[in-house]
Structure formats: C-alpha cells, structure tokens
Write the structure tokens for this entry.
Amino acid sequence: MNNQSTHRLTGNLGLIFIALSMGIILLIFVYFYYVLQPRLHEEAQSQANLLTQSLSRELMHKTVLDDAFLLQREVGKILLYNDEKHQKPFVKGIKIEFNPEFFPNHNRSLQRGESNCQDCFKVVTPLYDQHSLELLASVTYYVNPENYDTLLDEISRKFFFILSILTMLLFVIWSATQKLWKAMLESQQKLYNSNRYNQQILNTMQDMLFLIDHQGRILDANLSAQQQLEASLEILQSHFIQEYFQTSQKNQRLLSQLKNLGQESLEVNFELNPNGKHFGLLSASRFDTHLKVDGFDDTARYLLVIKDIDALKTAEAKLAYQAQMATGIAHEINQPLAVIRLGAEGIKHSLQDQNPQAFEVEIAQDVIDQVDRATQIINNMRSFARLQPSPKRWVEPQHPLNSALSFFKEQLRINSIELVEYIDTSCPQILIETQKFEQVIVNLITNARHALSALKNSRSKKIEVKLNCDHQFVTLVIEDNGIGMDEMTRQHCLDPFFTTKEAGEGTGLGLSIVHNILQEFNINLMIQSELGKGTRFIMQIPHKLSEIPS
C-alpha cells in the first residue's frame, strides 16, 4: 500500500467519522427539542395540577366561599405561596367562577393577581363541597412559568454541557483512532516492506531454499530453487521435497534423516535437466508454528538450505588425484636423489683422502646439500599431500612455517614478489597438527600471491611474514600489499563458497578451510584489509607457557 492510497483511505475514514458525529449530534438535538422539551412541559403541567389541587383544599368549603373575608384571606395565601429558593410565587393569578345555585349574590367571577397572564400554565380546578360533593365553583389558576423556564434553562445548560463534552470526547476518540489507524497502516507498511526485503534477499541467494511441513510438502521456495528445478512456486507447492531430492546413503529416507539431523549437514543428490545428476549439501532448521489445521497438529516446519556442491566434488576429486600423483612422483624422485647423494658422498670421501683442501671436495659437499634440500622439499610435499591426518603434537612454530614457505620461495622470486621474513626462533612450542597448520600457511600465502598478481600498477610487490610471541600467544602475521578487500568482502571472506574470482577460477573454500582449522586449534584470527592497499592476517596461537588451554 503506497502513501497516496494510505492518505486517501485516511481521508475517507475521516469524512465518514465526521458524518457519523454530525448525525449523532443532530439526533441529540432532535431528541432534545421534539421529545425532551414536550415531556418536560407535560411534567410541568402535571406538577402544576398537583400543586393547585393541594392549594384548593381550603377553598372546598361553602363557608369560606360565602365569607368575603375568609375568601380574600385564602386567595391571598395562594398568591403568596412561593418558592423558598428563588422567592417567586407559584401562582401569579386566580379566577373563581361561583355556582349561582349556591351563591346567588356572586353574579360575577372573582379575579385576583395576573389573571390575564399569557405565558402561565392555565389550570382549571373544580371545587366540590367536601360533605355533599356538590360543585361549588370553578377555579382557574395561572401558574407562574418561571419555575418551568428555570428548570428548562438548567436542563438546557446541562444538555449543552454534556453535548460539548460528547463532542470533545468524539474528537479525542477520532484523534486516538486516527493515530492508531496510522500506526497500524505504518506497521502494515513496515511489515510489507520487511517481507519484501526478506524475499528479495532470499531470491538473491544462489542456494536453493525450501520451507516444508512435517510430511515433506513444499510450502515455499526461493527463486533459485524455482529456476534450478525449472518449476514455478505453484507447481512446487503441489509436490513433496523427497520427490526432488534423495540422500546419498541407500535405504535411508530423507525425512527420517531430517528429524535427526541436528546441526550437521546431509549430502543429497538431485537431477537438473539437461545437466543430469548433481550433488548438494543440505542443512535444516526446525521451528514450530503453534498452529492446528483441520484439528491436526501441524506445527512442525523445516527450513532447508541446499547448496550445489558439484564444484566441491570435482575439486575434491582433483585434489585427491593430484595428491596421489604428488606422492607417486615424490617416491620416484627420491630414489635417484638417494643414488646421487650416495655417489656424491663417495666422491667426497675419496677426494678427502687424497687432498682435503681440494676444490672438488667443496663441490661434492654442495651437491650433497642441494640433494638434501630437494629431499626436504619432496618430503614436505608428501606431508602436505597426505590424506590421513596426523596427531596433534607440541612443535616449535618456526619449523612448520619454514616448511610451508619453502614451497613458495622460488615461485615468488620468478613472479618478482619479495618475501620478507621476521621470524623469532625463541618462541615457545605450540600444540598443532603440523600438516593442517602448514595447509593454513600455504592457503594464506597463495591468497596473498593472487592478490599481488591482480595488481595493475607497477609498484613493488611484497609479502611479509612475521613470527613473534609474548607471555600468552605466539603471533603469526602474513601481510601483503596487494589489491585488498572492501568491508563487505572482508566480512564474508571466511564464508564457504564465497569467492571474488571468476567462475572456474576458485571454489571459495580456501579461507573457509583456514577458518575451520584455526578454530580446531583454538587460534584467534583477525583480518585487516583496505581496498587498494593490502591485507593482513593476524593469528594468535596459545603456546606451551600460556595460561589459556589450547
């Protein structure tokens, strides 16, 4: 929902609320003037009738009506009867018409006070004799309307006061409702934007992402899954995950393995037309929705991430083949080297017997030294290519470092890359698996060499390797002045399969393997990098004299 439609909807609701409020106020006015006021008038008339009946009791005597003095006294009392609060008379005028049968001398009516009052309540009360019940006279009372007007004014003031309070209350309700409505619309908009943003993130993922229920039915899938499986979301939602993916282990059901997967990953295989069979690495997370569908407990949901690891499988096969080749070549080269060394030693001993200071003796020793150096390089290569892991042991850190660096010294010289070494040979021993630690150094030096090879300018290329120690750590720093990394690349460079190289040039596993090995040895890794200036890897390794267990 965009801002324009939101404002339009809010405006329409405001008009509806104003119309309803005006309708309610109009109904209240109609009720007041056409229902309440007539009822008040009737009530005032009824009260006037009761009052006059009470005032007429003393006049219901023939003797009082026949006696002018008594009559004047009672009429005076009636006219003086007033409201104690406002000191206003209830009766403003009185008119008595006598029955000529009983009072032949009273041929005219008796009028006192304001007997011509037009606004007064006019109440006619017949006077019957209390004993004979004969009609003696008829009395017309002109009841003062001011009491009614005062009552009406008080009620009107209260009415308009309540009406103003009601109007204010409606305004407050509308303001609160408008704020709540705007807050709800803003929350809905934020939720919509958040869902859209999350969906965009999921759709940019190259890995396949699925949401399934406890039976394996596909509930949702990201764009990569739809594209790789060549099926729309609607088609995928009509199938089960086990129809597309199978475990690599025979006689093992995918769902049963998912429920017991935990934090581990599961290797699966699937087919992509026209590429045929592919291998994937599946990781799953379970969560509960706390919902029931048609009375059935349908709370279990699984979020599956399936990464295509065909490139990894190919790389593993190549590495295994290259390791086997390296081992075979090393074995074949060691045999002639052993013969050369044996011959050089024989020549050296023979010449030493004749002339120990002969130049040929020095040459023979140089041959022996170079054979030993070649043998050491071959042994390092065989150790690095060894498929079986070696046990952890305490070693002096400069030994595996020098062994790994020996692979690169000639390569770096050929590529005009200066290798600068600052190695402290007095550092305490560290507990590592030598083969894996050398692999870490090889991967980091290889990355540094690639970063320097990518330089387009003519500045000098340099790799610095520093080894030093303190009371707690042995610190190994490998630094280059290559192309460096931006912040996003630095944050994700340790992620599996993350690479900035072109397709086919790298698997994105080198630094991920480094990170896993360092975690295994309890080694802290810090990465400092600036785009265009270079990268520094800092490893803090607990040593034998450290208080921190490795």
Remarks:
- The first strand starts at residue 91 and ends at 98.
- The chain has 14 helices and 19 strands.
- The radius of gyration is 54 Å.
- Confidence is low (pLDDT under 50) at residues 293-297.
